[in-house]
Structures are given as structure tokens and as C-alpha cells.
Design a protein that fits this description.
By secondary structure, this protein is of the alpha+beta class. The longest helix is centred in the C-terminal third of the chain and has 19 residues. The chain is globular and about 60 Å long. The chain binds uridine-diphosphate-2(N-acetylglucosaminyl) butyric acid. The site of uridine-diphosphate-2(N-acetylglucosaminyl) butyric acid has 20 residues, from helix 6.
């Protein structure tokens, strides 16, 4: 069953805590609810808002916002080595990680404490500490708003890449995700290669699922502000992918600059936007109600009462400083509306 709200304040529905309004919100449970809405009216502008952790509203949204409410979790198959699960879009991501860790299921422990709903996770292929959600996804089920039917895409068909998928490209404005099917394994597969993870895990007594989850939560807790305390959307910018020559030029001047190899692509490297912003002298920079977080320069924060436009103005200033200093363009990871 669906619920419809008109002219609604979005402050409690976005982690930036900005106080913009929308013309209409439809909370839907399943494909039938969506079919009813789209059969009656296909011309309205619309957007899907999960838990609101990766969206910045910069003005009145003159359209319909769809929010899923179904949060079921089913075990589709258990062959002893691992399980296939189907999780509905509204299920809280970190509750799923906790569920898997308690049951001895490997695959998503490095993605602990990412604020997200399950339905939003494949859209930008959430990732952290050397893991990405694409590594466990078997299929994604969505409602096609053109065909008015449910479609199931295999992992390959989702065209996952760094913070990207078909849902941000061709299926933007077409697909509303209903559920995600994932495979989790009982075989221990610790993935400790990133940054401080190995040290934090060792200090807790070794690579158990529980220790890895605790280590990741501790690392994130130290660097990333809690949106309940300080409005933010995690990394505001994507890490830029640049030509190898650009990175080599910068490395001559900044030999300590972090860089990451791109899988199957020797001619490009990924740089750390947080490092570039930090090195440009902007970490902890504050302008009125908004600022660059003091522990992680990749995160922009709302100190209270900020509008979306203030955040955008800060983001533009930060991008310009990075471009002036390094000649590298950084672009937002967050969806801007
Ligand atoms: N760095 C600085 N100063 C800063 C921030 C970072 O010098 O203020 C340096 C770090 O020392 C490190 C490098 O930049 O050498 C990378 O920093 P970090 O490991 O903190 O990761 P990140 O590149 O800033 C990415 C993801 C995060 C994810 C972490 C850990 C993106 C856009 N962000 O951040 O994801 O948690 O790696 O894997 O890819 C998110 O998407 O919201 C998010 C938090």
C-alpha cells in the first residue's frame, strides 16, 4: 500500500539536513504501487530517495519523490558454502552488514557503517576499504517506469564501475530499484589491504568477521562525521581518475601524493580527492553554516541551518581551488537536485 504526502519538508529525509520542500512524496511498498502511480500519470518529474544519504536538495523539488518502504530479507538458497539472499530496497544497509557478520557470512564486512539503504547501494556501487558492493551482487530487480513492469538485471548487465552503474547512466529516470540479490560466503575471505585496516584488525586479535567490522567502524568513526550530529553526505566528491601523465607530473612535485592503480587500465590512475583538497589548504575551512570537515577533507558539512545552495557554493569554491592548484577537476559524488 502506498502513502502520499503533499508539499513536504525534506529536512528529516536527507543526511545533509537541508530544509528544502518537495511537491509530493510517495512512499511505496511494491511494484503494484508504482504501476498505479505511473499508469495514472507519466509526465511528472520524479526522483527516488532512499535513506537520503547521498542527495543534496538545492531548491524546491517540483515533482514526485518515491521512497521505498519494503524491508524484507529472504534467504533464497543455502548450499552450506554460502547463501543467496534477496533484500528489499528499504532495508538499512548497515543492519544487513551486521546480520551477515552475526551469521558468519563473508563479503560485505568491509562495507560496515556506510549510511545507505540496500536499494541505493547498487546505484553508485558503494565501496570502502578495498571492497565494493558489486563484488557480492548477483542481480538487481527494478520497476521499469516506461514498460511498467519488473525487470531483473544480472551483475554484468548492471555495468558496475567505480561509484557508477547503469542506474546512474542509461536507466537514470527509468528504473526504480525494488530489491537486490546477493551472494555471501561462509569461506573466510579477509580483505585487509587498505590503509590502516590490517593494523586495526590485528590489534583486535586477528581477522574474524567481528574484528573486521569493529575495526572498520572505528576507522570510519574517527574520520567521518555522524550525520545525526553534523549534516553531511559522506564523500562529497569522487576521487578523480586522471591520465597517467597527469599523475606523473604531479608526483614530481608531490612525491607523497596517494594514487591508486585502476584495474585493467594502465593508462589512468585514481587520485585521492581528500588529499588534493587537504593539500590545497582547505581541510577544516569554514564559511558561515558550511565547511570542509576537519578530519576528512572529502566531506562537506552543514554546521546547522545551511541551505543546499550554500553547500553548492562551497563545493564550487573547493573544486576551483583544486583545479587552480593541481590542474585536476574533481566532481561531486552526491546527487544534486
Ligand atoms: N587524505 C588526506 N587528507 C584528507 C583525506 C584524505 O591526506 O583530508 C589522504 C589519506 O591520507 C589517504 C588518501 O587521501 O592517503 C585517501 O583517503 P581515505 O583512505 O580516507 O579515503 P578517501 O579516498 O578519502 C574513499 C571513499 C570513501 C571510503 C574510503 C575508504 C570515495 C569518493 N570515497 O575515501 O567512501 O570510505 O575511500 O575506502 O571513493 C563515501 O563514498 O561516502 C565514502 C566515505
Amino acid at each position: 500500500m502506498k502513502r502520499i504526502y503533499n508539499d513536504i519538508n525534506l529536512a528529516s529525509r536527507n543526511s545533509f539536513g537541508v530544509s528544502e520542500r518537495a511537491r509530493c512524496i510517495v512512499e511505496f511498498e511494491d511494484a503494484n504501487d508504482l504501476k498505479e502511480v505511473f499508469s495514472a500519470n507519466r509526465s511528472d518529474k520524479w526522483y527516488v530517495l532512499g535513506a537520503g544519504n547521498n542527495t543534496l536538495f538545492t531548491q524546491f523539488y517540483d515533482g514526485v519523490i518515491f521512497t521505498p518502504t519494503c524491508s524484507s530479507l529472504e534467504i533464497l538458497q543455502d548450499d552450506g558454502q554460502g547463501v543467496d539472499i534477496r533484500v528489499a530496497a528499504a532495508y538499512d544497509w548497515d543492519t544487513l552488514v551486521e546480520w551477515s557478520v552475526i551469521r558468519g557470512l563473508w563479503g560485505i564486512e568491509n562495507l560496515s557503517a556506510i549510511p545507505s539503504s540496500v536499494g541505493a547501494a547498487p546505484v553508485q556501487n558503494i565501496g570502502a576499504y578495498g571492497a565494493e558492493v558489486k563484488d557480492v551482487i548477483k542481480a538487481v530487480e527494478y520497476f521499469d517506469t516506461n514498460k511498467l513492469e519488473v525487470v531483473r538485471l544480472s551483475n554484468k548487465e548492471c555495468r558496475f564501475a567505480y561509484r557508477d552503474s547503469i542506474f546512474k547512466q542509461e536507466l537514470r529516470g527509468v528504473a526504480i530499484i525494488l530489491a537486490v540479490e546477493m551472494h555471501l560466503s561462509r569461506e573466510p575471505r579477509p580483505n585487509l589491504g587498505y590503509g590502516d585496516v590490517v593494523k586495526e584488525v590485528e590489534s583486535r586479535g586477528g581477522a574474524t568477521l567481528k574484528n573486521i567490522r569493529e575495526a572498520i567502524c572505528a576507522i570510519r568513526g574517527r574520520k567521518l562525521p555522524d550525520p545525526k550530529v553534523l549534516g553531511n553526505a559522506g564523500s562529497f566528491f569522487k576521487n578523480p581518475i586522471v591520465e597517467l601523465e597527469v599523475a606523473e607530473r604531479l608526483l614530481q612535485e608531490y612525491p607523497d601524493m596517494p594514487k591508486y592503480a585502476m584495474p585493467n587500465d594502465d593508462s589512468h590512475v585514481k587520485l585521492a580527492a581528500g588529499w588534493l583538497i587537504d593539500k590545497a589548504g582547505l581541510k577544516g575551512w569554514r564559511d558561515g553554516n558550511v565547511g570542509v570537515h576537519e578530519n576528512q577533507a572529502l566531506v562537506l558539512v552543514n554546521y546547522g541551518g545551511a541551505t543546499g545552495r550554500e553547500v553548492i557554493a562551497l563545493a564550487e569554491y573547493v573544486s576551483q581551488c583544486v583545479k587552480d592548484r593541481f590542474g585536476v577537476v574533481i566532481s561531486p559524488e552526491v546527487n544534486l537536485l
